[in-house]
Amino acid sequence: MGFFDSLFGGGRRGATGALAEFYDTPTRDEAWLAVDVETTGLDPNNARLLSIGWVPVDGDEIILGGAGHVIVRGEAGEGSVGESATLHGLTDDEVAKGVEPREAVEMVLHALKGRKLLAHFAKLETGFLDKACRRHFGAGLKVDVADTMQREYMKYIAADREPRRDDLRLWTCRERYGLPPYKAHHALTDALAGAELWLAQDAARLPR
């Protein structure tokens, strides 16, 4: 897949539990898991993971029955969600009712088994999931990645045009393909939106 293949993290050495199971499962062709995370910031080194949404994609079919969403409870010593709540709508009270971080990441890893990770600006998803895997499962997350934002960016470059920042936002990209608007910044909705954009890009024959 050229540019869209990305290996992230430190590999399988020392991996335990759900991460070890993920590494022991061969990746299937044309099997994807569209993933989105909501966080308190963009840098996994100083921001918290608040929720994760995912939707499987098999070939040209979105598997809604395999979709999932989880709110991630904060760990000891982590502060308030702060002003980020104005984006994702997750309050401290809601996050406090979420599941333990290890369990949340375990759910995602089970869904990801045998699949490649698909996201819009995938660096965010891989960064936070890699950090969580190192903390809870003994190793980093090394996974094949496809990025719908990068795919869209390369379309502009091939046409000898430099996109503006807004041109590459998920919802702007969807508009160009005639996809319906959804409410932004809910992890499951954004994962589904990314999956639909991926298939629209395929239909438009964008290179992978």
TrEMBL record:
Keywords: Nucleotidyltransferase, Transferase. SUPFAM superfamilies: Ribonuclease H-like. InterPro entries: Ribonucl_H, RNaseH-like_sf, RNaseH_sf. Residues 31-207 form the Exonuclease domain. GO terms for molecular function: DNA-directed DNA polymerase activity. It is an enzyme of class 2 (transferase). Its EC number is 2.7.7.7. The keyword Plastid does not apply. It comes from the Bacteria. This is DNA polymerase-3 subunit epsilon.
